[in-house]
Specification:
alpha/beta, Chitobiase, domain 2, TIM Barrel, Alpha-d-glucuronidase, C-terminal Domain, 3 domains, 5-stranded mixed beta sheet, 13 strands, binds beta-D-glucopyranuronic acid
């Protein structure tokens, strides 16, 4: 080999240092605090007060600014002053703190004692912490720092993660390794990672976390596990994050030795009261219970002929005196009911409107089925005005390609939140129901099923961190655009360079529609692999219940395809306000959700339904190819370690998009009996080949 002259080698090394940042493993999330221009102008940090929360705010500002300044000293000409209105120096500034409420903040550039100062002020310590993170975001994303005028308060009260984490550290539908909650070693060992978890959540304004799976074990409510939960609560408390637990409805029988869990039985009620008292002795600021009852085999009040309200109210009575809430899930369906599965929640809950105790909030998934790539919004939003209602989104991507598909969920959630329910006239968006504007409810909330695990990068993939991030930002402000969220995240997580930010933001924003194209175009739904939900499975039939199959939902036959949910069919459309139902039924994105149509029916493009399906499936694959190209061009802006992992995952995604396309086309063609439109390649394998694939060890099961 010819030796290169030393000089050339040195030059090459310095170029690669300047362009590709040092290797990163993703642990730092969007709180990387790498040097940015402009940070040097920020003055030294003064945080008034010494509570643990204020100490956390000070530590974050110091850590963040030290990193952002790249080791340079703070500017001596400017200052940074943070504190609550209880401090005379802050009160004296007469900032408009009224609107900030108990958790909001004001950030202002102003003269204080003759010096240009950035002031972060709030009514509470946690407001200061949230303000500190907001300020750091401004620096990280290179916003102008000399004329800041920010006032922000959360639109919803409960901004929660729901961990579907089991006591053995497995995570239901988790694709990021084991649970971060190391129950075995708690309470004695508190993984330092819990602090970083708290910091990341506080940076978004998340203020609660349900530690255990909704498919709960009663053991979580026993003394040893309460001690463990109390240890976690202690770590999270300074960051404004309350701990909640999923409660198993039959716990009084399983761990209480009672013969029944009937919510109207006085002994059962007394048991829950005593249990709640015990919990609050261990965790004085315990948030409350999350309950999945009478759904998918979980016990519940209906086992005793009682209603969801009877069950929820019993628990509400137990935690109420301590200020706790009960989040009662509306994700219910039972096999005895022959009704279209997507109608069941509405049928069971709407008659109970107004019957729940004040501290009960009904938790409703974004759509009426189950976190599909695309669903219309859940008809319960706006249909229970006398009941607090919170939205549940799935951050983990159970139906969206697990951790290896790059799918940014901002657009999915934005679509749901901005959907018009029409319940109090035009413009009654889901967001307005969720934040209480439409109903006047003051107990409001948003829950995200966490995608966090023990993987070094937290979420199983670098881009899935964006989904955690987006959920938190939307919980604070459900009217944020997914574009603004994607852009801020991309800047903080990777690079502020416009040559990076623009294409990557575009890739993120179109990624959801791309996934819909290669998985479930034109309103198809629930056609994934059985039980593990990995990959295509439109042929799934039989088994213990029809509504766990694919054929139940797509109903393909030689005559056509789709589920008739109009008046001629299940009439699920009637669960919406008439204007909303009309709009949804006319929207081609939901064609096969609401209608059963012949294969030759013309779509908006002028193509038949069959041709359009093939075109969309193929487009989805082409779009993933384009994502790969666009990511390949980003190499100069990203450290090699993260760049390579994203690139490798995109290759998996392309293969799997192709697999979805080919398997679905092979399957549906057996009914459509039509050729593929000209220029579209036939699936490389016969249908049987796809059907024979099996995945006994898919993660998240
Ligand atoms: C479905 C999941 C299942 C959950 C259920 C739920 O497949 O694992 O237990 O939702 O939300 O999406 O309770």
């Amino acid at each position: 080999m010819k030796r290169r002259p030393l000089l050339a080698l040195l030059a090459a090394a310095s170029v690669s240092c300047a362009t590709a940042a040092r290797a990163e493993d993703g642990y730092d999330l969007w709180l990387r605090y790498r040097p940015v221009e402009g940070a040097a102008a920020v003055g030294g940090v003064t945080v008034l007060g010494e509570s643990p929360t204020l100490q956390a705010a000070r530590a974050e500002l110091e850590r963040g600014l030290a990193g952002l300044r790249g080791g340079a000293a703070p500017s001596t000409r400017a200052a940074l002053l943070a504190g609550t209105a209880s401090q005379a120096r802050i009160a004296g500034l007469k900032l408009p703190l009224q609107a900030a409420g108990p958790e909001g903040y004001v950030i202002r550039s102003m003269q204080v004692d003759g010096r240009p100062t950035t002031v972060i002020a709030a009514n509470s310590d946690v407001g200061v912490l949230y303000g500190a993170f907001h300020f750091l975001r401004l620096v990280q994303t290179r916003q102008p720092l000399d004329r800041i005028e920010v006032a922000s308060a959360p639109a919803v009260k409960l901004r929660l993660l729901n961990h579907w984490d089991n006591l053995d550290r497995s995570v239901e539908r988790g694709y990021a390794g084991q649970s971060i909650w190391d129950w075995w070693k708690l309470p004695d060992y508190r993984d330092p990672r819990y602090v970083d978890y708290a910091r990341a959540n506080a940076s978004l304004g998340i203020n609660g976390t349900v530690l255990n799976n909704v498919n709960a074990k009663a053991d979580s409510l026993t003394e040893p596990y309460l001690e463990k939960a109390a240890a976690v609560a202690e770590v999270l408390r300074p960051y404004g994050i309350k701990v909640y637990l999923s409660a198993r409805f039959s716990a009084p029988k399983e761990i209480g030795g009672l013969a029944t869990a009937d919510p109207l039985d006085p002994a059962v009620r007394a048991w829950w009261k005593a249990k709640a008292d015990e919990i609050y002795r261990a965790i004085p600021d315990f948030g409350g219970f999350l309950v999945k009852a009478n759904s998918e085999g979980q016990p519940g009040p209906q086992d005793y002929g009682r209603t969801h309200a009877d069950g929820a109210n019993m628990l509400a009575e137990a935690v109420g005196p301590h200020g706790g809430v009960v989040m009662w899930r509306a994700f219910v369906y039972s096999h005895e009911q022959p009704e279209d599965r997507i109608k069941q929640a509405w049928s069971e809950f709407v008659p109970l409107d107004g019957k729940f105790a004040k501290n009960v909030i009904v938790q409703v998934k974004n759509g009426p089925l189950d976190f599909q790539p695309r669903e219309p919004f859940h008809p319960l939003f706006g249909a229970m005005p006398k009941t607090p209602l919170m939205a549940e989104f799935q951050v983990t991507k159970e139906y969206l390609g697990f951790a290896t598909h790059l799918v940014f969920q901002g657009p999915l959630w934005e679509e749901a939140l901005q959907a018009d329910t029409w319940r109090a006239g035009k413009g009654t968006t889901v967001a307005k129901v969720v934040d209480g504007e439409a109903t006047g409810q003051t107990l409001t909330g948003m829950a995200g099923v966490a995608n966090i695990g023990a993987d070094r990068n937290w979420s199983g993939s670098h881009f899935d961190q964006a989904n955690w991030y987006a959920f938190g930002r939307l919980a604070w402000d459900p009217n944020l655009t997914s574009k603004a969220i994607a852009e801020a995240w991309a800047r903080m997580t990777f690079s502020n360079d416009p040559a990076f930010v623009k294409p990557v933001t575009e890739m993120m924003l179109s990624s959801r529609e791309t996934m819909v194209n290669y998985m479930t175009p034109l309103g198809l739904h629930h056609i994934m692999g059985n039980s593990h939900h990995y990959g295509p499975g439109p042929w799934v039939a039989g088994g213990e219940r029809a509504d766990w199959t694919s054929v139940y939902y797509h109903r393909a036959s030689p005559d056509g395809i789709g589920f008739d949910r109009m008046a001629s069919g299940s009439n699920a459309v009637a669960q919406y306000a008439p204007e909303a139902g009309k709009a949804l039924a006319a929207d081609e994105r939901y064609l096969l959700w609401f209608h059963r149509v012949p294969w030759d029916r013309k779509t908006a493009s002028g193509r038949t339904v069959w041709d359009e399906l093939v075109v969309r499936y193929s487009r989805g694959v082409d779009e993933v190819k384009a994502m790969r190209r666009s990511w390949a061009a980003m190499a100069p802006y990203v450290d090699p370690e993260r760049h390579a992992q994203v690139a490798a995952y995109l290759a998996i995604q392309e293969n799997e998009a192709q697999w979805w396309r080919d398997a679905c086309i092979a399957y549906f063609q057996t009914f459509s009996k039509r050729p593929l439109p000209a220029g579209y390649a036939p699936p490389p394998h016969p249908l049987e080949w796809y059907e024979a694939l099996s995945f006994p060890y898919a993660p998240g099961g």
